[in-house]
Amino acid sequence: MISFELTEDHEMIQEMVRKFAERELAPNIKEWDVQGGFPRSVLTKMGEQGILGLCFPEEYGGGGMDYISLAIACEELERVDTSFRVPLSVHIGLCGLGILQWATEEQKEKYLVPLATGEKVGSFGLTEPNAGSDAASLQTTARLDGDNYILNGEKMWISLADVADTFLVFARTGTAASRARGISAFILERGTPGFASDTIHGKMGIRAGNTGSFSLVDCPVPKENLVGEEGEGFKIAMSCLDGGRYTVAAGSVGLIRASLEASVKYAHERETFGRPIAEHQLVQQMIARMVRGMDASRLLVYRAGWLKNQGIRNTRETGLAKWVACDEAYQAATDAIEIHGAYGYSNEYPVERYLRNCKAAVIYEGSAEIQTLLAAGYALGTRKDNPLRKELPSWPFKE
Ligand code: CAA
Fold first, then answer.
1. What is the domain count for the chain?
2. Is there a domain that residue 24 lies in?
3. Helices (H), the chain
4. What is the domain extent for residue 220?
5. Is 399 a catalytic residue?
6. Do 74 and 166 belong together in one domain?
């Protein structure tokens, strides 16, 4: 049976996050975007509201909600600004769900619980200055020395680099020639000697959010912080991206919705040639395209979420959702500016911010080109999903 209905719990989450975003975030976003950052207290409040722990099992201090709830929260947050959805992508999608899927019970008790309760903020360190789309070429090294792995290297384009407390970091334990098979995953805490983070300035969009880099210089990570087995890190990273890309796709639906809402309002208010521009068919065409993009993208996101709930591998479906939703968001944001005319080009209206914000998502967490290759690979039979040693828990979570 296929149901397109949200449950009462979903509606409750939707209303709670929407009200939170409209009350706490929307009134300040313009200022934070201009200033180049929102205060850390925003994340604290998100934690207090349970948003940062939404879909982690209750046994680890989370809200125990399903994966569709995560999509709903992302949509509501990005409807106000991308900067508020990004923490869910890195904290939940990339870091927390990765720990939930792959870590030992001891590691979950120690690191997942403070993430789920919002006491600590998580992030993810895969990308490097010379390794983006080709993640398997990363150069950061980890060498076992007594009770520690010693990490050396540099990570780049890391969301919340200067804010997060706990990082899921990927480093090479094998030779460069071993590519994907020589990568391992580690939990790294801020404050570890040799760890230093920095913020990247001059970004086109997501200016209210923190993006940065961090360096690791002879950084000792206790060997009990190895996640999974040595050499399993690339699979861990890719499975984390199945979570991260899902949140990016869901957030993009929110950005399309924001573009649509702003455009509909403006189209009714603004008159040209003696009538509201809503009556001009070329304006209607752009609005209809936003509706099409929003509904198609949301359905793709919910399908991926449904698969996650069932515990079924969803790399293909999550990739499609991410690809379509990010492209549609970019189209919606540019059309929203077109509808607003010259006003859309100034920050008197929010739509210029939407366009600046959404371009990043076409690039990060698997660019449109990478998603194209994945989709083609599945269709042509050159790509298939091999079973993993550990899968993301299905929902409802077992006690
Ligand atoms: N889940 C689990 N395992 C997976 C997987 C998945 N989704 N995808 C691939 N694997 C496994 C494969 O099964 C394979 O293992 P086996 O050989 O044992 O079967 C292994 O990983 C290698 O896979 P590939 O052969 O597909 O590897 P590849 O080198 O050809 O790379 C790629 C494939 C799709 C191009 C991949 O490199 C990719 O997705 N690149 C994009 C990286 C990306 O999205 N980066 C964004 C990082 S997010 C970030 O850093 C932002 C931030 O703010 C923190």
1. 3
2. yes
3. 8-20, 29-35, 40-48, 67-80, 82-87, 97-102, 105-107, 113-116, 233-269, 281-310, 315-344, 351-363, 368-380
4. 123-233
5. no
6. no
Please state the φ and ψ torsions of residue 25, each to the nearest 5 degrees: -105, -50
Give the closest residue to 353 by CA, choosing from 368, 334, 370, 326: 334
Average pLDDT over residues 205-233: 98
Nearest CA to ligand 1 atom 4: 235
Share of the chain above pLDDT 90, in %: 99
**Rounded mean pLDDT of 10-37?**
98
Query: CATH number for the domain including 262?
Result: 1.20.140.10
Q: Let me know whether 115 and 188 are in one domain.
A: no
Whether residue 94 is found in the same domain as residue 57: yes
Which three-class secondary structure state does DSSP give residue 185?
strand
The DSSP 8-state label assigned to residue 25 in this structure reads I
Q: Which residues pair with 217 in a beta bridge?
A: none
Tell whether the model's pLDDT for residue 1 goes beyond 80.
no
Atom index in ligand 1 nearest the CA of residue 364 equals 46
Q: Which of 11, 338, 365, 399 is catalytic?
A: 365
- Assess whether 135 and 54 both reside in one domain: no
53 vs 289: CA distance, rounded Å: 34
In terms of domains, do 181 and 219 share one? yes
| Ligand 1 centroid – CA 366 distance (Å) | 9
pLDDT in tens, 58-99: 999 999 999 999 999 999 999 999 999 999 999 999 999 999
Residues 6+ apart with CB under 8 A from 242: 314, 315, 318, 392
User: Cα(209) to centroid of ligand 1, in Å?
Assistant: 26
DSSP at 141 = E
Q: Is the pLDDT of residue 340 over 90?
A: yes
